[in-house]
Structures are given as C-alpha cells and as structure tokens.
Design goal:
Distance between the termini: 65 Å
Number of strands: 17
Helix content: 25-40%
Shape: globular
Number of helices: 12
C-alpha cells in the first residue's frame, strides 16, 4: 500500500517522462538505474489521469514481456490500490488488457508486427528496444496516431541497456531522427537501489562496467559477439538438425546448463536452462537430469574434465557425458562465426553476450583475448558448440570421460 503521508517515491527519470513533449523518447541506462520502474509509474499515472487513452506496452516476445513490464505494472497497481488516486481497475487475462473507464493499457509481443496493423495508440512503450528490428520500430511508430483529447500528445518511449553502438536504435533513431529526446541514467540516479546491488555494479569490469554500471554504448570492436538475434523456438524448430548441451559448473559462481540447437544451415542457437549458484555437484546433476527431456538423454553433454565428481554424478544418472574441448580462442572463433540467435527466455545469457568484451592493454589497445568476467553461460555455450563441431571434424564423437572410449 502507498504511504499517503510520504507519497510514492520517484526518480529523476520519472521527472523526465512527466515533462518531455517529444514524440520519440529513449531511456538509456545501466542496470539498477530504475528506468523500467519509472516508466511503469509514468504509464500508471497516464492510465488514471488521461481521458480516453490507449496505451501499448510491448516487447519482442510475450514470455519476456510477462516476466518484466506486465509483472511490474501489475505489482505496482496492486501496491497503489487503496489510494484515492488509484481506484480499482479491470484486467482481462486473456487479452492482457488493463481497463479503467475508457482507458486501456494493452500488453503485446512484437514477434509478428502484423498483429497491430489494425490498432491505433496514444502511447507506446517498447521494453528492451534493442531486441526489436528497425522495421519493428517503424511499424509501431505508424500505429501512434490515435485521436488525442485536450492537450494530450501521442508519444513513443523505448528503454534499453546500451550495448553495441552500431545498434539501429543508436545509429538510425538517436543519431538521425530529429527531435528525439534521450534520458541517460545509472545506478547512481536510483537512491532506492539496495546496497548489495550497488556494490555488485561497482565491482563490474570491462564491457560489463561500460554497459551495466556506466550505461554507455560499447564500440563493435570491443564486443566478442555481434550480429546475433533474439529468436523464439517456434521460428526455428523445423530447422533443427541436432541438439547438444554444455555445462560450466561452479558453487560460488554460477552453475550453468545450456542447450545448443544445431541448425541444418550449420548455424547455432543457444538456450539458457540453468543459471544458479550454491548447488553441490550432486544437487546440480539432479537438476540437470530433471531439466533434460527423457527423449534427449542420449544427446551429448559436454563438461569440463576438471570436474570428475560432477561427471560421475551425471554419468550415474544415465546422462551422456563427454569431454569438452576447452581451447578458448578456437572455440570462440567458431561460435562467433556460427551463433545465429538466442531464445528470448535466456535473460542471463543475453546479459552476458551484450557485454562480453575483449581485453585491452594499458593504452586501450584491444587484445585478441576475452576478458574473463561473468561468462558462465558463454563457456557452457562454447563447450556445447565447438566440442561437437570439433568431434565431427575429426570424424568421431568426443570420448566418454569415464571409459576413455572414442566412437567412430
């Protein structure tokens, strides 16, 4: 419930949203900056104070939208309930529409832009805008033409962590379109961020510091992986040639399981399955066993051979464990060439890829060596992808770690 004496706490980003009159607005910020929270508060305020307004909240895929903006906005609506400024609303769970009087706030994925062809809106908010294409953005902008009431203006808002400076959002919108307003924020602009999260952000290094701590764009040459896309399973399920798995284990750092879809084209799509710390090897092996479908238990699982205890636990559970090829540069080189996309639910993997960068020397010269920092899922992806390719290239599959056998 809202503390009526103190009111609802807001940030400078909320003040920007409340005062901007630009048609196109971009919220660029690091992690913990509160930009998504401020946007949710702003949309709720418009939902209750404007008349006859249609709001669209969207993201590339519906599962990701449900986990982020939809979840946050519903939580805030429920938290504010009871304050006279925020009366009871209706919620259509099937259509994902909040309603209050003649006002509607609709939630929709943009995996198929044609879904909105017959719709018109007064306000559009795009969460994680860099997941979309420039064409997606243009299609959405065309729908920003609903009749306004009073002094209301139609506006589109986009929020994202910066990553590749060659992103369409930077090069084609921020740099080229006239009248675009940009609000930059970092964790320092969010006085409500808990101390633990603040300390973690302050300890980031390399690309993670640039993107998530400082909220700045990375130059393309700084990033290890570029050109990959967010691709839902439904878009590639008929193109799969084989499946492998990769594991990178740690107790204090993250234990990860990743599924690699090997497409008929030769390209790869990665899917995050486990990203969790504090698991013993036996607990992790049990979780892996539960997650991998029965029909996939014969698929190859590539693991670091330095984890014999984990290998035995996985082997004892009937899983097809194999030795991972660990050459970092060879593995990265192959993955960089063949990684086509990431499934949208792989939020931690996406976060790693957006900031995984090359080392620099003291003069800032980029080196041919990745910075080893927060790359647990990327390591698992490299194991699952390069090990399989290497084995096929040698006309054999990787040997079973316990028997020492090699298979033709």
């Amino acid at each position: 419930m809202v503390n009526k004496k103190k009111g609802i706490p807001t940030t400078k980003t909320f003040d920007f949203l409340k005062n901007t009159e630009a048609r196109v607005n971009v919220l660029i910020g690091g992690a913990g900056s509160g930009k998504s929270y401020a946007m949710a508060q702003f949309l709720i305020a418009k939902f209750y104070t404007d008349r006859n307004i249609e709001i669209l909240v969207c993201r590339k895929t519906l599962p990701a939208l449900r986990m982020t903006s939809l979840k946050l906005i519903k939580e805030l609506l429920d938290e504010y309930r009871g304050d006279s400024k925020y009366p009871t609303y209706a919620f259509n769970k099937t259509e994902l529409i909040f309603s209050y009087g003649n006002n509607n706030m609709k939630f929709m994925s943009i995996d198929d832009p044609s879904k909105i062809m017959s719709s018109e809106f007064n306000i559009i908010f795009i969460e994680e805008a860099c997941e979309l294409t420039h064409r997606d953005y243009q299609m959405l902008k065309l729908r920003l033409r609903r009749k306004t009431t009073g002094d209301q203006i139609n506006q589109i808002f986009m929020a994202t962590n910066p990553a590749n400076i060659e992103s369409w959002l930077k090069r084609k919108v921020i740099d080229l379109e006239e009248g675009v307003e940009v609000n930059h924020s970092t964790y320092k602009d969010n006085p409500y961020l808990n101390p633990e999260a603040r300390a973690e952000l302050e300890n980031y290094i390399g690309g993670f510091r640039t993107v998530y701590t400082e909220g700045r764009w990375l130059e393309s040459e700084e990033l290890v992986f570029t050109g990959w896309k967010i691709i839902p399973y439904s878009k590639f399920r008929n193109l799969i040639d084989d499946i492998t798995y990769g594991i990178d284990y740690g107790f204090n750092h993250k234990a990860t399981l990743l599924r690699a879809y090997h497409l008929k084209s030769g390209n790869i799509i990665w899917e995050e399955l486990i990203y969790k710390s504090g698991l013993t090897q036996e607990e992790f092996a049990e979780l892996v066993k539960k997650i991998i479908p029965i029909e996939n238990t014969e698929k190859y699982i590539y693991v670091d051979s330095a984890e014999p205890g984990l290998i035995k636990s996985l082997y004892d559970k009937g899983l097809n464990v194999h030795n991972a090829k660990k050459n970092v540069m060879d593995g990265l080189s192959y993955c960089m060439q063949h990684l086509e996309g990431i499934t949208p639910e792989s939020k931690n993997l996406i976060r790693e890829l957006r900031a995984y960068s090359w080392k620099k020397d003291k003069e800032g010269v980029i080196l041919d060596e990745p910075l080893k920092f927060m790359d647990d899922l990327i390591d698992a992806g490299r194991y699952s992808t390069y090990s399989y390719s290497y084995s096929l290239g040698k006309s054999r599959l990787a040997g079973n770690l316990l028997t020492g056998e090699w298979y033709d």
